[in-house]
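Quick one: structure for this chain?
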Amino acid sequence: MSDIRERLLEATFHEIHEYGYHAASLSRILKKAEAKKGSMYHYFSSKKEMALVMIEEKLKARSEKYWLSLSTCKKDYLAFLISMLQDTKKHDFTKGCPLGNLLQQCSSGDEDFLCLLKEALSNMQKLFEGILQKACDAKEISNIDVKSTALFIISSLQGALLLSKQSASSYEFDICMQQVEVYLLNLAPASKKQC
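Got it. Here's what it folds into:
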């Protein structure tokens, strides 16, 4: 892959994360990427196409890479899921979640964006469903509707990220994630619950 193309996609990711798709400035993207407009048009026909490719190659890939370890976990599934959720606290989400931000901005408009974003969210939900099913099968948690529980966790995560963005603080995010952890621990059978 071309270094210029890669720089354009990386700059697009950061620009859209900071300003949103509609307010993203092509001139700022080009400046950050240290690229000329002609270089951009060599790879992409428009800002929209560049953003769609960024979603596919950067945003979806980053999200899936981060959460992919949920599918490779071999034991202690509940503890691993909780540790992954706790690990998200290390990130600066005062600008919100890149995926969540784009879902809010583009969900009522462009079908091209919506299709890619829904796919990214669906892939994330499947990873959560998978580890919850493994935890059920291993009797770490009671039998639950893993699809609904995964949706609840992702909704809680996205809502907490939105509150963090709004307040420019991790306080709300930390509280929400603590409550998700309490919820998950309460799914354990009575004989396995810790005092």
